[in-house]
Amino acid sequence: MDGQRRIDQPMTRVYGRQRAGFLDLGQSKRVRIAARASAVLFLGLTILHSIILGGYLRYDGSPWAKVPGKLSSLIGWAADDIRITGLVHQEPEMVLMALGVKPGGSLIGFDAENAKALLENLDWVATATVQRSFPNQLEISVEERVPFAVWQRAGAYYVIDRSGSAMSNVAPGKLPALPLVTGEGAQFEVAGLVNQLEVSPDLSSKVRGAARVGQRRWNLYLDNGVTVLLPEKDVKAALARVAALDASQHLLSKGVKSVDLRFPGRVIVAIARIEEPTAEKAKVKLSQSE
Q: For residues 182 and 102, which has the higher predicted lDDT (pLDDT)?
């Protein structure tokens, strides 16, 4: 009996080890299958993410165009809450278009710093801030450049800011109070002209437009059809002189065609031609002639 047990017991232990080995082999196989499935899933998601970021699903008529947004919505990463503040002359759609974001669209891969740089690269944006609050909220604040004047060049009209930079997507017709300037370099010099006109507010209020002549001086066009030819230098003194003559002698309301201040110490006045009562009043046009 003792001999039997000595023989049987090792057999039992060997059998136990074989059984354990069989169980370990099954678990290892399942682990390998799960690992491979996870790797394939990760690779698939990576490829899908690259396709989405590359815009390959966004072509017109694409049946896949709305898929990223729907998938993102399921996991809470869709642009469901977008807040845009600070706009004055632009529409929120212009901001979203610049960022490539649509309400309800995917926010996978959205980079707030990159979005800020994209907005500040627009010619009508002064500064911008972009914040993303996970998972589905965007807060965008935009400070627009301030329209300062309308610049006419080659038959086209551009709204410009104080520095002379043109602002696209701002319609000049919606800003009739802005001064109209023309001539090469006028967009960069108009701020200086406005500063000089501040010494004569009564005269300034009558200015309808101005032309930069030879990139050296200005012609002013008043609302009553009078043209004021300014000198290259001592502009403030010339403006003060014509403003004083108008205040004391009503110079600019006596049928005057033009007032020439280009020569130091002299004021040359040209009288307008008397029109027939039935004649149509000629329209004032901006001119850059000397």
A: 182
Pairing of strands 256-260, 268-271: antiparallel
CA distance 218 to 211: 6
Whose CA is closest to 125, among 133, 134, 117? 117
Q: Specify the CATH number of the domain 67-144.
A: 3.10.20.310
Q: Omega before 103 cis (within 30°)?
A: no
Prediction pTM value:
0.63
CATH superfamily of the 149-271 domain: Cell division protein FtsQ/DivIB (3.40.50.11690)
Residue 188: φ, ψ to 5°: -90, -15
200: pLDDT strictly greater than 70: yes
- Please state, in angstroms and as integers, the Cα–Cα distance from residue 101 to each residue in 80, 81, 86, 93, 106, following that order: 11, 12, 18, 9, 8
Token representation of residue 259: 């007032």
Residues 79, 138 contacting (CB under 8 angstroms): yes
